[in-house]
Amino acid sequence: MAHVGDTKGARYMRWILVLVALGLGACRPLGVLDALTPVADGPRARNLAYAPGPRGQVDIYWPVSVEPGTPILVFFYGGNWRTGDRADYRFVGEAFAGRGYITAVPDYRVFPEGRFPAFVQDGAIAVAQIRALVAAQGPPADGPLILAGHSAGAHLAMLLALDPRWLTEAGAPRCAVSAALGIAGPYDFLPIEGADVREVFAGAADLRETQPITFASADDPPAVLLAGTADTVVRPGNSERLAQALRSAGGTAALRLYPGIGHSEIVAALASPLRGVAPVLVDSDALLRAALSTPHPSCG
User: What CATH number belongs to 8-292?
Assistant: First the structure.
């Protein structure tokens, strides 16, 4: 896989990543990426409510041109299930909208209020409401639905895509999901290491039900899994094992590993100034388009 070499442009991009990590010039570290991302021409709607409370809101980004059948992508951010704010992820919304996806970035409850399964239930409600929220703004909302996320958000997206009970309980059958995109996600992390993560999942009756890999089956929507080989926060083996489990079960999974890319770099590479770090956006788009062409059971 292509990755950044020791060029002047590469060093420039690495320095930007350092600024992002340190949060220089911004109250929120990810605000650096938003500040460096040009404002797109497509329409957007902010602070739309999908559920009561301050964590029950979503921002939506549209492509410049929306036709019937335009895919809808719901992106869940990461933050170790403890932090995160949709306002910090404009760069993600702009990235996928620029590729022709109606892109929704919802908040969800985080620890301590958002102990498992509360954050999963929030995600399911957001997904169940998204078509109505898009349609209420005017554009068509009849395209295929994609669940996506980074880190803890990828765990959430994959759990919703693979374990049908959550979306069913929210009134959106899992068969409505046409594809799932996971970026540097934890999908197979038992036994749980770290007291902070154990606290998040302490309420689970069976910890196996917190693991997306548990639900790998032939009925799952096609999955696109991206990870960096230098990721020491969420080891790329999570993506490799899930891809293998899905394929072994008769499902479909595409896997891309980026040499030398770490946990923050892989999502930062979605921002327009950093796309030379790794082709995350280009690969996501190409692999999702291929996944959407794969026959998948309908809800009819």
Answer: 3.40.50.1820
